[in-house]
Specification:
Strands 1-3-4-2-5-6-7 form a seven-stranded mixed sheet, sandwiched between helices. It is globular, with a radius of gyration of 16 Å. The chain has 218 residues and is α/β, with parallel strands linked by helices. A hairpin with a 5-residue loop joins β3 and β4. The protein starts with 16 loop residues before the first strand and ends with a helix. The protein binds guanosine-5'-diphosphate.
Length: 218
């Protein structure tokens, strides 16, 4: 087993520990490990998904007050990598100026942070690929790094509705097929966590094999 990787039986995200919050780009810690970035529209279910993956009830805080100071939260994993919880986007009630400012932070982090090894994008399965979700793909896509989409709240759909949405979302992502994968997920039913871990885990293996890729400028 390569050094630094958890044994197969142990969850990648188990025992994640909060390390630091950044309110702006200049607060970001110097890169010290592979970062798995989590982003999503507010209320899409990102905090719940992080908690489900970590097997915790309150690692990421669920149902934050919209509009309060938004932070980039770093959680250190047992293998030295980081889970980075990015501020939710698309709050309806946030003043335009603050919204623009946060979009600038997200754009800069996603497009320039060399230590990111992949992006997990959380979408409500009933409303996948909104304009802002596509914006994330546009910002992060040019890095060439992998993106994995969790279509969450799948428990709110029938099995056939969910399958249809998965299929339709994949079809829309054909232009990104080399880089983007999609799956159904439910924090309520705790379904999809193994698949997500397998994919995210593979990013870390690739990163360990070629860390110079991550550290390359740009
Ligand atoms: P965030 O703003 O993206 O972090 O979203 P939250 O994780 O706070 O979830 C927003 C709301 O959706 C909360 O009321 C959650 O309880 C609910 N929610 C999140 N995930 C699921 C899920 O998988 N199934 C169902 N039924 N509800 C969910």
């Amino acid at each position: 087993m390569p050094a630094g990787l958890p044994p197969r039986s142990m969850s990648l995200f188990a025992n994640a520990v909060f390390t630091i919050s950044a309110a702006k780009l200049s607060d970001l810690p110097p890169p010290s490990g592979a970062e798995i970035a989590f982003a999503g529209r507010s209320n899409a279910g990102k905090s719940s998904a992080i908690n489900t993956l970590a097997g915790r009830t309150r690692l990421a805080f669920v149902s934050k007050t919209p509009g309060r100071t938004q932070l980039i939260n770093f959680f250190r994993l047992e293998n030295g990598a980081f889970l980075v919880d990015l501020p939710g986007y698309g709050y309806a009630d946030v003043p335009e100026e603050i919204r623009r400012q946060w979009q600038g932070v997200l754009a800069a982090y996603l497009s320039r942070r060399s230590s990111i090894c992949g992006l997990v994008l959380i979408m409500d399965a009933r409303r996948p690929l909104t304009e802002l979700d596509r914006q994330m793909l546009e910002w992060f896509g040019p890095t060439g790094k992998p993106i994995h989409i969790l279509l969450t709240k799948a428990d709110k759909l029938t099995r056939s509705e969910a399958a249809k949405i998965l299929h339709a979302t994949r079809a829309e992502l054909v232009p990104w097929a080399d880089q983007v994968s999609v799956q159904l997920f439910s924090s309520l039913k705790k379904t999809g966590a193994e698949e997500a871990e397998r994919i995210i885990g593979s990013w870390l293996v690739a990163d360990e094999a070629a860390p110079e890729k991550r550290n390359a400028p740009g």
